[in-house]
Amino acid sequence: MVITAHAAGKRASGGKLSNPDRLELYYYMRLARECDNAILRLYRQGKIVGGAYTGNGNEATAVGSAYALEKDDYLFPMHRDLGAQLVKGESLRNIFLQQLGRADSLTCGRDGTGHYADPSLRLYGNVSHLGAMIPMAVGVALAVKLRGEKAVVMNYIGDGGSNAGEFHEGLNMAAVMQLPFVLIIENNQFAYSTPVRMQYAAQKLSDRAAGYGIPGFTIDGTNVSLVFETCRKAVDRARRGEGPTLIESVTMRMHGHSASDDAAYVPAGMIDDWRKKDPIDRLEKILLADHVLDEESKKKMESDIAAGIDDAVARAVESGYPSGEDAGEGVYAP
Amino acid sequence: MPPLTYIDAISRGMWEEMERDPSVFLIGEDIGAYGGAFKATKGFFEHFGPKRVIDSVLSESAIIGAATGAAVAGMRPIVEMQFADFVTSGFNQVVTNAAKIHYRWRIPVPMVIRLPTGGYIHGGPYHSASTEAWFAHVPGLKIVAPSNPADAKGLLKSAVRDNNPVLFYEFKYLYRRIKGEVPGTDVTVPIGKGEVRREGGDLTVLTYGSTVHFSLEAAEKLSKADGIETRVVDLRTLLPLDRDLITESVRATGKVLIVHEDTLTGGVGGEIAALIAEHAFQDLDAPVRRLGALDAPVPFAPTLEAAHLPDTEKIVQALRALALY
């Protein structure tokens, strides 16, 4: 596909989004959403191992942020950041192997969902204690600085996870040591069932940045161009050795916490209000108006995405579950 | 090389490994120009510089987490916890991240966490705790606990070269109380191997760290006073345990006392006793006995601390009772 070929080249040269860039952002957001939809279908068919977590509503934040990274930069995404993983270059087959708990998955079935690492892409997934990833991601940024490399580490946390102690400890250390680190808070209004007003008393989560002596921004997380531009500035700053940035990207979790959560606690109308700001629809309207996208190429993209996902799922299913015989192997490195 | 104190042996081990491998670096609180609370890193900052001797923020989660991340990225960090007690503030990073990464990701996590541990120093409940049993339950970690300068240096070097997170328990009581010859630059002590410190055919003490010394004293006393000969086994590594040496010692003497300064309930001694029950029951001539600290925090007043912790006399008494069984 023409669009993915662009990924191999220079993205957003000079920090500006070209039309091929915008088309690529659109493609990755659609791809992420269709993967999520496929995961939900597989969940309903009883094929997903464990829970199913989607990033519906979060696509602009995940895709726009990771698009600001270079190939040698490090990505520490969360469970709603499938879009970021795809932008970093993860294959659909690996994504679905993970969801299905198969032997050929990147974790050999040891862990599920986005809890994998792909060092070839400098991509390190989350643990369930999301805040715990922050000090570790900061440690990669420390290694980068100690070795005099130019890479940047991008890490994500939620409105809920931002209240864990490790958020403070990690971000403070990154600030004190001026490490090349960008932390994105995906404020999607709910931490499982708990609304943000019960999670923090600050006006904005980016206000916390002042406490660390670093820049903080709160942005509309449904505007992919804005997410990209804000993150690119933070990434450039980090790469110049000027230290970390905190970005609060405001979105809505359009589904329940997991597929088993009907989200009945979400106030009536809230989902409908946010649907009007759907990140994919927003960009689609602009691209159609700008004649970067037309109905025909859109249909072609949709069918290509569907075929790619079908193929990946089929190939993932071909890999069986791991043999139980080796369940105790790999605890220690040789 | 002249004999070194226990803490100087640790310093020497770190120094040699840093000279040998540029990916080794130190991180911890007050370890830079100040040289650390116990001066284990005295002179390191001046020699190796701020990129390899990192004076960190007071933040155990950040320190251990950052070391884990750096290890994942190919470095070999040595973390200093100021006291083993404070590792509780970084517990999540040890058990949730460091210990599980290789199993999940097949990425090695070569890091050492140094933990100045234990009592007999009037430190009270927050500077004297034994924390090893919490971690002995965590697959993916290794735990070493040397009792003398040579082992301290050799095990430190092995820990640095190991591709897994190693918890290095160093006994504050021994820091400057004991001196000994230490081997040369290339000599390491293997992780997972205990050592017989004293031979004896009647009884066995299985122990580690500070209580190795009290056990040796007790064995001498018992030999002189009662003519009972006690084998003293220094386990040296707590995870993984040296099962062969443990079962062989049971076979050799038939009666076993396990001694540690950690509290008794849920202590490493319980695991050792279970191993013996499973693998050497037929060789026992008496029930396995354990001697540990009281199931209480380590108290502050010297009289209370003495009552709380095992000592030579308590070990002598326990051994006598065992001999009479």
Description:
- Chain A is α/β, with parallel strands linked by helices and 334 residues long.
- Chain A has one domain: 3-Layer(aba) Sandwich (Rossmann fold).
- Chain A has 12 helices and 9 strands.
- Chain A has a 5-stranded parallel beta sheet with strand order 1-4-5-9-8, with helices on both faces.
- The mean pLDDT of chain A is 96.
- Chain B has 325 residues and is of the alpha/beta class.
- Chain B has helices at 6-20, 44-48, 60-72, 91-98, 101-105, 132-136, 149-161, 210-226, 243-253, 268-279, 302-308, 312-324; strands at residues 4-5, 24-28, 53-55, 76-80, 111-117, 142-144, 165-171, 179-180, 195-198, 203-207, 230-234, 237-239, 256-263, 289-293.
- In chain B, strands 3-2-4-5-7-6-12 form a 7-stranded mixed beta sheet, sandwiched between helices. In chain B, strands 9-11-10-13-14 form a 5-stranded mixed beta sheet, sandwiched between helices. In chain B, strands 1-8 form a two-stranded antiparallel ribbon.
- In chain B, α1 runs parallel beside α7 (149-161) and α8 packs across α12 (312-324).
- Chain B is globular, with a radius of gyration of 19 Å.
- The model of chain B has no long low-confidence stretch (mean pLDDT 98).
Strand content of chain A: 5-15%
The geometry of chain B reads as: globular
The major β-sheet of chain A equals: 5 strands, parallel
CATH topology of the largest domain in chain B: Rossmann fold
**CATH superfamily (homologous) name of the largest domain in chain B:** Thiamin diphosphate (ThDP)-binding fold, Pyr/PP domains
| Secondary structure category of chain A | alpha/beta
CATH topology of chain A: Rossmann fold
Radius of gyration of chain B: 19 Å
Distance between the termini of chain B: 47 Å
Shape of chain A: globular
CATH class category of the largest domain in chain B = Alpha Beta
**What is the quaternary state of this protein?**
heterodimer
Strand order of the largest sheet of chain A: 1-4-5-9-8
Our measurement of the CA-to-CA distance between the termini of chain A, rounded to an integer number of angstroms, reads 41 Å
Instruction: Give me the strand/helix succession of chain B.
Output: EHEHEHEHHEHEHEEEEHEEHEHEHH
Q: Low-confidence spans of chain B: pLDDT under 50, at least 5 residues?
A: none
Number of strands of chain A: 9
Considering the protein shown, what is the CATH homologous superfamily of chain A?
A: Thiamin diphosphate (ThDP)-binding fold, Pyr/PP domains
Class of chain A, according to the CATH hierarchy? Alpha Beta
Relative strand content of chain B: 15-25%
